[in-house]
Design goal:
With 261 residues, this protein is α+β, with helices and mostly antiparallel strands. A four-stranded antiparallel beta sheet has the order 2-6-4-5. Strand 9 and strand 10 form a beta hairpin. The longest helix is centred in the middle third of the chain and has 27 residues. It binds zinc ion. The site of zinc ion has 7 residues, from helix 7. Zinc ion (ZN) binds next to helix 7.
């Protein structure tokens, strides 16, 4: 697969700085944090270059950093003993990778793989993250809310993987991917698809072929193009709508009492 040639230059240019103003941050959760809290987080945030397929965490690893995607998305993967990886959730600009850092002693309960080109990604050392959580405020509220939404997403996907048809699940996945990537066309290998759907590669070919013949997508040479979004929404199970609703409220003060300032 062709790696983008601008990659090297890109790495150099994004080394510059994390935005000094919260609203300019590309991660929605960080952008929603009040300015004074953001100013306290800023010294702990750094910009990092990540590549597609890069593992940010492996299951069982101690958590050194938490990551805040500023684009693209990350697959949260369950790992079986034979090496099979199955996607249990995806994490994009609305949240962060590594909530386990505060949920337990700091070991990852899943593997996190960069799934789509991520132009911007911020990271924070796990210790700084725990300190920020201990300070409380809206940051803690948003992270807690996101962790809850992520847990709910995993539950939804568990039911989805057990009950819904592979065609429905593929449609669900493609819709959320388009929302997060922001373009109708994106890279998607058969290997990734098999991982996401928990099926064999030949099965992937059949399923993608079904959606392609129906005119919903075009899939060739490791790239997928969504042709008929509305039909794809109709082809998806309820899980696309449910998970989108879960994620769209992150970073809003919609629950709990408002603070005085
Ligand atoms: Zn479903």
């Amino acid at each position: 697969m062709a790696r983008r040639s601008r990659s090297a230059a890109h790495h150099a240019s994004t080394r510059s700085a994390v935005p000094p103003v919260n609203r300019a941050n590309r991660n929605h959760l960080l952008a929603a944090v009040p300015a004074d809290e953001y100013a306290r987080l800023l010294p702990s945030l750094e910009l990092v270059a990540v590549d597609v397929k890069q593992l940010l965490h492996k299951i069982g690893d101690p958590i050194e950093y938490v990551y805040f995607p500023g684009g693209g998305f990350v697959s949260d993967l369950a790992a079986l003993e034979d090496g099979t990886l199955v996607e249990v959730a995806t994490i994009g600009r609305e949240g962060l990778v590594g909530t386990d850092a505060v949920l337990d002693g700091g070991f990852m309960s899943s593997t996190a793989m960069v799934q789509a080109e991520m132009d911007i990604c911020y990271r924070m050392h796990a210790n700084a993250f725990r300190e920020a959580m201990a300070r409380g405020g809206m940051f803690r509220e948003f992270v807690t809310h996101f962790a809850h939404a992520l847990f709910a997403m995993v539950k939804q996907y568990t039911a989805c993987n057990a009950v819904h048809k592979v065609e429905q699940r593929l449609a669900r996945w493609l819709l959320l991917a388009e929302d997060r990537v922001g373009t109708q066309e994106f890279a998607l290998t058969q290997e990734f698809l098999a991982m996401m759907l928990g099926v064999s590669r030949p099965a992937v070919t059949v399923v993608a072929g079904t959606l392609q013949k129906a005119g919903l997508i075009n899939y060739r040479r490791g790239r997928v193009t969504i042709i008929d979004r509305e039909a794809l929404e109709n082809a998806s199970c309820e899980c696309y709508r449910v998970t989108t609703t879960l994620l769209q409220h992150i970073g809003r003060r919609h629950h709990g009492p408002r603070r005085s300032h």
